Amino acid sequence: MPIKDQIKNLAKKFVEDHPDAATLRALVRARKPTAIRFDDDGIVPNNPHFPVLLYRGAVNLKTRRFAPEVIIDTLFDRHGWGRSWRDTVYDFVHYHSQIHEVMGVARGTARIECGGIKGRILSVKAGDVLVLPAGTGHRLIESSRDFLVVGAYPQEGTYDECTDTRERPEASKRVAKVRKPKTDPVLGAGGPLLKSWRIKPSRS
């Protein structure tokens, strides 16, 4: 999301009541994510090294003490994924060529297309978390009226938004250079992302 949305969200966070580390641990379910790989489809590059990760029911949001979006936002921040925003997902195909993105569903349900128009439509609901490696095309297909996502980014990387097919050749080069993050946004330093996102050695 643009910097203005991140600033707006930052202002909210200053006045919110956040769960502490122990409470967060109790609300997170240690789920093994589903890994989905997408090839370059000629329109969006997707990622040549890392798969999309879908954590089903990763966060227990059934608590009255904290708002669902606050729980997810705090979780991502604790694990080093910041510059967060809270909104819906754009309904046009786009991707980020210089940074990875995590999206946690705080409220409602949706169908999100990943991998570009030749990719796959994923149904998500509150408590699910979707990690999109740099280059992954995505867009909203449909959602419930109350649909709300918390998005965030790892510490390394620069936010950009690619939508023009003419950008793909240069964007593909940038995507290939984006490094693996240091932590899993859901489960931290020991999370499954670190094992799943391994660059396979090239064959000579």
From TrEMBL:
Residue spans of biased composition, Basic and acidic residues class: 163-173
Name of this protein: Cupin
Region annotation Disordered: where it falls in the sequence: 160-204
InterPro entries assigned to the protein according to its UniProt record, in alphabetical order: RmlC-like_jellyroll (IPR014710), RmlC_Cupin_sf (IPR011051), UCP019307_cupin (IPR014500), YjiB-like (IPR047121)
